[in-house]
Automatic annotation (TrEMBL):
Domain of life: Bacteria
Molecular-function GO term, any one: acyltransferase activity, transferring groups other than amino-acyl groups
Protein name: Acyltransferase
Keyword line: Acyltransferase, Membrane, Transferase, Transmembrane, Transmembrane helix
Native organism: Limnohabitans radicicola
Protein's UniProt keywords contain Ubl conjugation: no
Stretches assigned to the Acyltransferase domain: 2-327
Pfam family, one: Acyl_transf_3
């Protein structure tokens, strides 16, 4: 089930960006306005699916990390950063060059400006939004938010362990889950209502925390209690401010908390569909990273040859999705299946900075 959720969210966010940034969707809109509007308005809900699943998987990975301290936590943060950033740097390198290559002939509104060295460095350290700089690709804000959320979870874990060490009558595991519950609730009913906080992980902790709590509910001796807590939290959040993104995150969390165990397992003899979904789930991050560069290339070709053809632009959108999956598979093999260490990070940074330098040269 997790594979199906991640695979579906992966395709939906690609389609959302195709609808949001155009230009192919602008032509397709003339024939299918409702479809494009739905992708434009609601396709971004895929992010909520990713956040909840990420929280769920983070909780699963930390369930045996009792006694976590800073000496253990800092290498974990470094490893998470490397896992996120190495594919991201390679994908950004491609996006920067594709953007600059097509700019002279296709002045799409979605094209980012030619980057400079400081903007490139900000992207390397996931600081571009905090510094108010333009992003070089679609959706890359999520990478920084994912790392912030992971850091929040590990920091709370370490601080709770230190607190409980001084108050031996308390159980660290119980206090930790109470802290995560409070953070999730406050995010749902307060932080996520303040748009000026959307560059910080606390804004998104509501959805992420629902994933954490969904895992807790599955591990609880009284699963119904955890499911009831999730239900009440969702109802309260929707009572405070009805929002589709809260409804989506809440629904996914309830599903993860209450689904039968067999829904999480592959069939004994997985068919072609199951293998395909599992594969797409595995490469979903790489697809997410590289899809914008692919969509720019396809948009340039379609706009050059069939700028007003609804059929050609509709097929172009489908080809962009397929191309993103194929390019994502290549990026996955190149980066996520390779050792994710600081040497490969250095290679990725070098490639990205060289791409930025070349883009600056091309813009002269």
């Amino acid at each position: 089930m997790l594979d199906q959720l991640k695979a579906f969210a992966c395709l939906l966010i690609v389609l959302h960006h195709l609808a949001f940034y155009g230009p192919m969707s602008d032509v397709v809109f003339l024939a299918w306005p409702r479809l494009i509007n739905e992708l434009y308005d609601h396709g971004r809900l895929a992010v909520q699916v990713f956040l909840v699943c990420s929280g769920f998987l983070t909780a699963a990975s930390l369930q045996k990390k009792s006694g976590l301290d800073w000496r253990q936590a800092l290498p974990m943060v470094g490893h998470r950063y490397l896992r996120l950033v190495i594919p991201y740097l390679v994908a950004l390198s491609a996006t920067v060059l594709v953007t600059e290559w097509i700019r002279p002939e296709f002045n799409f509104a979605s094209l980012s400006a030619t980057p400079d060295a400081w903007q490139a460095l900000a992207h390397v350290f996931l600081m571009e939004h905090l510094l108010g700089m333009e992003s070089l690709s679609a959706g890359v804000w999520y990478v920084a938010i994912d790392l912030q959320l992971y850091l929040i979870v590990l920091t709370s874990f370490v601080l709770v362990n230190r607190f409980v060490a001084r108050h031996t009558s308390l159980r660290a595991n119980r206090v930790l889950w109470q802290v995560w519950l409070v953070l999730t609730l406050v995010s749902l009913v307060r932080w996520s209502l303040k748009d000026d906080l959307d560059i910080y992980g606390l804004y998104y902790f509501g959805a992420y925390g629902l994933g954490l709590l969904a895992f807790r509910a599955r591990q609880s001796r009284i699963p119904l209690k955890g499911w009831l807590i999730l239900t009440l939290m969702g109802l309260l959040a929707l009572w405070v401010d009805p929002r589709w993104r809260v409804t989506t995150a809440w629904g996914v969390a309830l599903l993860l908390a209450a689904a039968p165990e067999r829904w999480f397992a592959l069939p004994a003899v997985p068919g072609l569909w199951h293998k395909g979904v599992q594969r797409l789930s595995r490469i979903s991050y790489s697809v997410f990273m590289i899809h914008y560069a692919v969509s720019l290339l396809v948009s340039a070709v379609v706009t050059a040859h069939w700028p007003e053809s609804v059929l050609a632009n509709a097929l172009g959108m489908l080809m962009a999705v397929l191309g993103a999956v194929l390019a994502g598979a290549g990026l996955y093999r190149l980066t996520e299946q390779s050792p994710q260490d600081w040497r490969h990070w250095g290679l990725g940074v070098g490639m990205f900075m060289a791409s930025v330098a070349l883009a600056m040269k091309m813009s002269d």
